[in-house]
Design a protein that fits this description.
Rossmann fold; six-stranded mixed sheet; five-stranded parallel sheet
């Protein structure tokens, strides 16, 4: 079956996978979604026999129908190598015995940048270059990315020196951890650029979205043989790989004897931009027996409030927290969920997004609200509880986790305390290596003194726990900073032209 894609704001559109991956975002500002979702439920017994790369190829083949089998296989084989992910399987399930043997952390951070974004951003460059050969007409792809910390480095690492691409990453100047910033500003590669924006992640993300829909700017690029694309989860090629690891996690529970095929599990995800948990929702739509999707937020609890009330309101104080990758007030991928739940009514969806842009708030009404609440549990965790959870997991489980994972564990405990349903096995997404946030983890473990030098904190955490830090983080200490520019969000478009060498 040929899979085509439409836009959340234009249901009449029909494009091939290669077109939507190359384009990133629809012309009118909508996000691309598949016209249907394949049902995997009858295939689960056979899928359970596959290793991770083969499972990925099988899932991708259902969505990338204008890619050949050989093209998909090449993309996967080049992305998920043992050298990049420390072994033949890029993800690991870690049981939490004190919470129950059927409660597991899904470790998604064994890739080159120590964050879950590697699972998608190691393969997206291969998807994109394959797509460009089909639809790019020889143009160079300019990858624009806004990051709250992890996406930026993972995208830079994935696209470094990839022929036919340039990548520009914007990050909030004071909104990432010292290690995340260090990873980005020391990035090697002739085709990469990094720039800080004054403001928060939403300012960076809004700037990138405006550039994508700037017809004059796109025309300037076209005249110079370039086109825009994205490595953010607004790009379907970035979201698709995330579906695979939820399918794998369920099948691994089956292989371990913790589930019988068809029995449900819960999924818990720390999220700000809603992409990672949306991938789990899509896996559910494809027949994976997921009962409840637990959406974990930090003090920027705009998603929690939306799930509980049906009103999305970004007009609130922004909090810089110990889990900075979730410091987001505009959750882009929620648009895809709402498009699905409102019956693919692009006019209604576009109205909500217009209200958000113009007034900062929208309400979805009773029918959609009830659907959201039936699927999702929303909870939030402030920094005090985040630190306490890190300490408890270390003392009770002997497990060292990062701040974002701790948010997920704490919110899952809230769900357990409040739910009236029978408990089922749960998979909790663990999204980053704790050494990416060493100062916060040290503080959580009771360290009396923290250094202003994050590498001293890294060494102190190694000494305290006896757990070695990743070599790729230690190596950053010797690398020179390449990118120091800071701009206002209003100057983002001008920076893009300057970085690309296009005269204004």
């Amino acid at each position: 079956m040929q899979m085509r894609y439409k836009s959340t704001r234009n249901s009449q559109l029909r494009l091939e996978a290669s077109q939507v991956i190359a384009q990133g975002i629809s012309e009118e500002g909508g996000l691309f979604v598949p016209e249907c979702f394949p049902d995997l439920s009858s295939e689960l017994p056979d899928l359970a026999k596959l290793d991770y790369p083969t499972l990925a190829k099988t899932v991708f083949s259902k969505f990338l129908t204008d890619f050949t089998e050989e093209e998909i296989s090449t993309c996967v084989d080049q992305a998920y190598t043992p050298e990049k992910f420390g072994g033949p399987c890029p993800v690991k399930l870690h049981a939490l015995p004190r919470m129950g043997e059927d409660k597991c952390l899904l470790e998604l951070w064994h890739g080159p940048t120590c964050a879950f974004k590697d699972m998608a951003l190691q393969i997206l460059p291969h998807f994109l270059t394959t797509a460009l050969k089909k639809v790019g007409r020889g143009k160079e792809a300019v990858i624009l990315t806004a990051t709250s910390g992890d996406t930026g480095k993972a995208a830079l690492a994935g696209f470094q020196d990839v022929p036919g691409t340039r990548i520009l990453v914007f990050y909030p100047r004071d909104g990432v951890s010292p290690m995340q910033k260090r990873q980005m500003v020391t990035q090697e590669g002739a085709n990469v650029s990094v720039c800080a924006i004054e403001g928060n992640f939403d300012d960076a993300q809004s700037s990138v979205k405006r550039i994508f829909t700037d017809s004059e700017l796109k025309q300037q690029l076209s005249e110079h043989g370039m086109l825009f694309s994205s490595a953010n989860s607004i790009n379907w090629g970035r979201l698709l790989p995330q579906i695979v690891y939820y399918v794998y996690a369920y099948l691994e529970l089956v292989r371990q004897g913790k589930r019988v095929l068809g029995e449900p599990m819960d999924v818990v995800v720390p999220t700000g931009n809603f992409g990672n948990i949306l991938a789990a929702y899509y896996a559910r739509k494809m027949g994976l027996p997921i009962r409840k999707l637990v959406c974990a937020s930090n003090a920027n609890k705009v998603l929690t409030d939306f799930i509980r009330t049906g009103t999305y309101d970004r007009r609130r104080e922004f909090h810089a927290t110990a889990s900075p990758s979730m410091d987001i007030l505009i959750s882009s991928n929620l648009e895809r969920l709402l498009y699905d739940l409102c019956g693919e009514d692009s006019e209604t969806l576009a109205g909500w997004m217009k209200d958000l842009a113009e007034t900062g708030v929208y309400s979805v009404g009773g029918t959609v609200r009830e659907k959201v609440q039936g699927l999702f549990y929303g909870g939030f965790c402030e920094d005090g509880a985040t630190f306490a959870t890190i300490r408890q997991l270390w003392e009770q489980e002997g497990y060292l986790c990062d701040t974002h994972t701790a948010v997920a564990v704490d919110v899952y405990r809230q769900y357990l305390a409040q739910s009236q349903e029978k408990m089922v096995p749960a998979v909790i997404a663990s999204t980053a290596n704790p050494y990416k946030f060493s100062a916060s983890v040290l503080r959580a473990l009771g360290a009396e003194q923290l250094s202003s030098d994050d590498f001293q904190n890294l060494a102190a955490l190694e000494t305290l726990t006896g757990i070695a830090s990743p070599a790729q983080l230690r190596a950053l200490q010797e690398k020179p900073e390449r990118f120091t520019q800071v701009i206002s969000r209003e100057n983002a478009a001008a920076y893009v032209l300057e970085a690309l060498g296009i005269p204004t």
